Amino acid sequence: MNKKIVCVLLATLFAFTAAGCSGGDVSVSFDESMPWADAAYEYTEYKIERQYVGGNQDVTVAEGTYTSELKRGAEQTTLTNRFKLTYLDEEHAAYINERGEKLLNAGLTDTYEGTVTFLNDSLAPVSASKTQNVAQRPLTDNMPADAQTEGLPDGVLSRYLLPTAVKYADPRGYAYQADYTADTVHFTTTSGVTTEDKENNRYCRDYYAVEKDYAIKGNTRYDNEQLAYVVRAMTACKRKGSGTFYLSNFYDSFVNDKYVRYTMNLDCADKNASTTLELSPEKVYLEDAEGRVEAEGGKYTIPCVQATVSISSATPGPAVSLLVTDPIYTLAQSQTPTIKTSKVVVQMTFTEYAYSSAKVNYRTVYTLTEFRNRPLGN
To answer: Of all residues in the chain, what percent carry a pLDDT higher than 70?
Structure first.
């Protein structure tokens, strides 16, 4: 696999490689009013279920939560996404450590927090930051008892002695701070280097702190954390709609040692899909063009646009599937029904291919469980 889509869910540990984008900047058409424009605050929460789907039956290997919190000011909006995924005691959630041992991830948790500030009307990013913690990778995240941390050469954070050379890549936790006004990003992570100790018939795995600075290029681009909100705001997010936008990705910038900006395609199905929302009608007010929509059996059923987001490439990897409430419907809190939000993402689905084949190996589904907003001035 040469590419995989890069989105707000990097913490699900997809393997990413990428190339730069070609062509001139694209013009993105947004709705006249943003879907969240009535509110000063919007909060959505999703349950996460990660499944192994490469066998005879689907097996849940991890569960978690994802939240997205939007705060809108007079000119700028700040969006904060938080992710937490805990692995279950399941063999399909296992990994191979640097000794070549198969270890289960049971009870280990991956987390990240990403924040981006952007202009209210154009969605042009002003600044962004992210911290990603990858719990199931050993060594500097979970330091083994026999790791050396003292008496090491300059710059080495820790040393791990191995009987054989490391056989796999070394994905790590990372952090970045991006300044879109100055067009710069500062990326930090750790990197392992393996050397052979022939005298003692062993290998040394040394870990170093890595810092990289990149120039952010291109005029029309959005931050990775904005993906769902750019899709929501696009006029093309409707039945039969299609559009293109650019997305920065700083993790892939580090992997490729140069700034990476993806060309993203949005394609929406000809027909809507009806979806039952996991939201309490006592708390959430649903309305269409004719007025309030009544819940049936204590639940709302609502038509949703079936949106697909993919990298524009000959080898794009699996796309991200989004279910977005049809534009004619609005959500509000029952106590403030006039503060309306439209085009809410109620489900996101990410898939991963098996490295040995083109078959889907894992599927990670995010399902909306909570929605809140607040009016301007509150």
So the answer is: 83
* Cβ-contact 167, 203 below 8 angstroms: no
Say what the alpha-carbon torsion angle 331, 332, 338, 339 is, to the nearest 10 degrees: -100
Residues 309, 265 contacting (CB under 8 angstroms): yes
Cα separation, 177 vs 202, whole angstroms: 38
d(CA 148, CA 132) in angstroms, rounded, equals: 24
Number of other CB atoms surrounding residue 378 within 10 Å: 10
Residue 13 has pLDDT above 60, yes or no: no
What DSSP designation does 104 have? -
Q: Pick the residue with more confidence: 308 or 201?
A: 308
Report the C-alpha gap between 265 and 245 in whole angstroms: 7
Whole-angstrom distance, CA of residue 264 vs CA of residue 12: 20
pLDDT of 12 strictly over 50: no
In whole angstroms, what separates CA 208 from the centre of its chain? 26
What pLDDT is recorded for position 160?
Answer: 77
First to last CA, the chain: 48
CB count in 10 Å sphere of residue 310:
19
Helix (H) or strand (E) holding 19: none
Q: What predicted TM-score, i.e. pTM, was given to this entire model? A: 0.86
Give the C-alpha separation, 207 to 160, whole Å. 9
Using alpha carbons, select from 131, 121, 127, 247 the residue that is nearest to residue 187. Answer: 131
Beta bridge partners of 323: 306, 347
- Cα–Cα distance, 322 to 350 (Å, whole number): 9
Amino acid sitting at position 268: C
Query: How do 284-288 and 330-333 pair as beta strands?
Result: antiparallel
Which residues lie closer than 8 Å to 271 by C-beta, 6 or more apart?
239, 306
What digits encode the pLDDT tens for the residues 245-275? Answer: 999 999 889 888 999 999 999 999 999 999 9
Model pLDDT for residues 92-112, shown as the tens digit of each residue:
877 666 666 676 777 888 999
The CA distances from residue 102 to 91, 92, 95, 97, 352, in Å, are 9, 11, 6, 7, 21
Which pLDDT score, from 0 to 100, does residue 170 have?
A: 61
215 touches 182 (CB < 8 A): no
What is the 8-class DSSP label of residue 148?
A: B
Instruction: List, in sequence order, every beta strand (DSSP E) within 88-155.
Output: 95-96, 102-103, 109-119, 125-133
